[in-house]
Specification:
The chain is of the alpha+beta class and about 325 residues long. Helices cover about 35% and strands about 25% of the residues. It folds into two domains: about 190 residues, no CATH class; about 140 residues, no CATH class.
Length: about 325
Amino acid sequence: MVDSVVQVAVHDLRRKGPADFETILGKDQLDVSETVVRVVNDLHTLYANRASKAHGRFSENVNDYPAQTFIADFHKGIYRDFATLTQKLMTTLTTQARRKAGATGGHVLFAHIERDDHVYLMVAIINDKLGAALTNDLDIADVKHLDLDGFRFAGRVNITAWLNDADRYIGFLKGKGDVAEYFKEFLGCDTTVQDKEDTKTLIRVLEGFADPAKGVVKDKQAFLQKAYDICERHVRDGVPLDFEAFSNELFPEKPDELAKALGDPDIALGDGFVPNRRALRAMVKFTAKTPLWSMEFDRRALAEGKIVYDPDKKTVTFTELPDQLVQELERDRE
């Protein structure tokens, strides 16, 4: 859910020929009715729940990717000239669609929304779907409606995060193949992969998802060990993660819930990266170091009771010490 739907406009991107599109402009702004608010909220929720997203920042090449210039002007104008913003963005979208074989048109919805004290611009391309409805005399008639569940292209720019120099503030659905590239280029998004940081974020998300207090995952240690094994296989084979396939393999009981957690747009974690092996170790190992000692142990040691943590005393007890260590400790005690 969004906190506020401020401004909404819908324009059309229509195909004229095999490699040509035209822009059909709608109203400068729609009345923000209950229906409009519901549609925007539904789209935002569906976007948030899709696992396969990419995240990045604006490209430094402003000439070829001018979306950031238009959004900057929109911000400088205190978010008043929504019509100019959406019309300029439609020109850019049409240009990019003409350059990409297989690009499709549709109704392009622009929404200026607010959520958690942040200002966003959300863009989604939606098509019509043929359905049926009962008439007043109980006959059945064709009716067209927006196919919200079937939308393929959507993106979101966190304008507040951008102005605060965040590392990533643009997200968009990746889709299949390279057709979605034109939507990425329309937004002017640079999706440079940071595999080490992404791996750390992945671990945080998985640990939070498996938190026993949530009651979703029965055995946190086994869950994280399985996640590690899957990720280690991807590292070994050099194959990027696909969050939908990853969720199905790791948590077949409720893969949609895990995919939703991984695809949370507020986390800005996109799939399509090969996990970083060194960062990945934190998923199954605990490490700590002080000026007087250091230690490292596997999560499996906790699960098997070889190492015991006392949350009240904040102490860790090691059992089954190696003979060599016992002998050295005994000699030192004597």
